[in-house]
Write a structure and sequence with these properties.
By secondary structure, the chain is α/β, with parallel strands linked by helices. About 30% of the residues lie in helices and about 20% in strands. The longest helix has 16 residues. The N and C termini lie far apart (about 40 Å).
């Protein structure tokens, strides 16, 4: 039976933060967002998670041996001095197809090795690395997973979500079975896909923090919602504020800034006291 969560960790682990605050955001590079620009610093954003620097064997940085994703790549020098990128966690190689990515761990690690020295030469304030292969309890990582993670630089993060709705304790049990003790977890809150409420997502954050340690867990708050015509749209301020309020005091990254946190939404969130 899973251990009960002590009452002491029902509170945020940090204090002194503004009542409404976003400390970080994700940027998922795509052809639409090669040159990310926005007023995200007005929300308190100082930390940037770049989801990947290569996807489907095409690179967003030059000199890796992989073909470039486009003739014009992201302007990393400008990004490095943006107020919303004062600490950057850099994602390595990824694939859009989840099943294909899970079957290609060795290839993604090989591509990551080519990316790391190139990224290290960029002027970014590098705060860590992210292996962008998302995991959930429908998949049990095999030996190639732990072997691959062992070859990647530290600090290192992966991301996890609970598509099966096992609950926070069962998810923590599953993660502890295979995740190395020096690798952190970004937990995707699932609110954007209506998998759970912010209050339930907070319970996951509390349990994972208790089980894995505060330094190894951060929340990804989904700033999108399903669109009636298919795909996703930006969340409204009224939809996103309950997530910001539920997670106040915790390390949170909004997913994702360039696609879903446009200027009108940023202005409305600022008007509602997000700083």
């Amino acid at each position: 039976m899973a251990a009960m969560l002590p009452c002491a960790v029902s509170w945020p682990p940090s204090s002194g933060a503004p009542l409404r605050h976003l400390g970080g955001m994700v940027w998922q590079p795509s052809l639409r967002t090669l040159r990310p620009q926005g007023n995200w610093a007005q929300l308190g954003v100082r930390r940037l998670l770049v989801q990947w620097t290569a996807v489907d064997s095409q690179a967003f940085v030059p000199g890796t041996g992989l073909p470039p994703i486009a003739a014009e790549l992201p302007d990393w020098e400008r990004i490095a001095v943006e107020p919303w990128a004062q600490e950057v966690i850099v994602g390595l190689a990824a694939m859009h197809g989840e099943a294909q990515a899970r079957a290609s761990v060795a290839l993604l690690v090989e591509q990551a090795h080519a990316l790391v020295p190139i990224v290290q030469r960029l002027p970014l304030k590098l705060g860590g690395w992210y292996f962008p292969l998302e995991v959930d309890p429908t998949w049990l990582p095999g030996p190639e997973w732990s072997q691959g993670l062992a070859q990647l630089p530290r600090p290192l993060w992966i991301s996890a979500y609970d598509s099966a709705n096992l609950g926070p304790h069962a998810l923590a049990d599953w993660i502890e079975r295979w995740l190395p003790a020096d690798v952190g977890v970004f937990f995707q809150d699932g609110v954007g896909v209506h998998a759970r409420s912010p209050e339930v997502a907070l319970k996951y954050l509390q349990v994972l923090t208790y089980r894995l340690g505060q330094a190894r867990v951060q929340m990804i708050a989904e700033a999108f919602r399903p669109a009636p015509e298919g795909g996703f749209r930006s969340a409204t301020a009224a939809e996103f504020l309950p997530q910001i309020d539920a997670y106040k005091g915790w390390e949170v990254l909004a997913f994702d800034g360039p696609h879903y946190l446009g200027e009108p939404l940023v202005a409305e969130l600022v008007a509602q006291g997000v700083r």
